[in-house]
Amino acid sequence: MRFATTFLLLLIVVNHFQSGAAEEKKAKNVILIMADDSAADNYGSYGSNFFQTPHLDKLAAQGARFTHCYSGPVCTTSRVKIMTGRCGIRNYSMFGSLDKNEVTFGSMMKNAGYATAIAGKWQLHGPPNGSLAPDCGFDTYCLWNYPGTERARFWNASIMQDGELLETTEEDYGPDIFTDYIIDFIEEKKDEPFFVYYPMVLTHSPFVATPDSESIGELKGKEKSLRYFQDMTAYADKCVGRIVDALEERELSENTVVIYTTDNGTDRSLSYPFGDETRDGMKAWAIDAGTHAPLLVSCPGTIPEGTQSDDLVDFSDFLPTIADITGAEMPDVKLDGRSFWPQCQGKEGDPRKWIYQYYYPKFTEAGKPHGEGINSNEIAWAQNQNFKLYRDGTMYAVSDRGEKSPIVKNGAGERGETARAMLQKAIDSMPVWAAKLAYGDTGEKGKKDLKKKDKSHK
Q: What's this model's pTM, rounded to 2 decimal places?
């Protein structure tokens, strides 16, 4: 009898520790949210008193905030890079297209056994070899700017959901549909590992009322647009809050990593207060104001509260980070990113010394200051937290948000020249011409000229 009792107690103890180990090893879910056209200075946790973002500010306070995250200057550049972990010089083909031959984090997570979903904005199906959501590893989707949809993204939104065009009315608000879809997916997959990618339609133009907007009275023109943009930023924040609440209600918060960022700077038509100054939106410009993005990461119990990192983060880093969080096997291709998951947890990690950016702007004015190569429109640069060097040799301080004052040689002293040498070496380490750019009839000379300069190209 005594032996049986002892044996039973032993079984209970063993089972307790096995259950604890299994719980500890449970695969983490990941939800990546990326807002549209919203710079870092549009958020309270990055110093704004004009925009109200309480849910995201709470996310920052309870998790990790990165001060030096950089997107591309415009949507396709950022979306291709964040999804593939590869610099645009390797895989950018044209605006509105993601080459179907590229491997994305959706496919990576599907191969790792995760349930995968995407909701929001697509705009990656254009020629010459564009992709659809299933091509990118997503089991299920709810998307605007997808084959078969029309232009409306907010009220009476045109949305394709798993091959069917939704019937919506003037009372239906697109961001609510997308957020509801994600919450329903969380409920359905709560007992298995899942990966959600939410590229929001907010806060892109047109600037229109949200369900929470109040009367704007006599406001017109830019003042009207700014008021609605302010409302849209608040509503994007509300959508994030709803998702976080859904995780808490299902007791999934401690097992889900929520990541929030944005795809580029604020719309160029807008000017907004920031501290004692007025700032202009600089979307599509290859300057700090067009590429400095917020990055917030939360996972209670894993990420210490109030974590802040001044390390560099490039959009190519998201795929390796998601792989690091989940244990997924990374694609067997040349990647440019590295994981920032250790820094999220307050560890040293493997911080970058520089990031490299390649950009072929649809907005041709953006190509004039530093454009070269194909159609004299390609822009490439390397930067760290303090200095930025374009491939054409022009250098700026990162703190020069609008890049008004180039730094001449020795103009920033020994520290500046040390950075210049390092950044030049970074530029020289990358190919000079884009592998997949749709060059067109006028670009061949530029392509040949750059190929002559590219000593490393094979």
A: 0.92
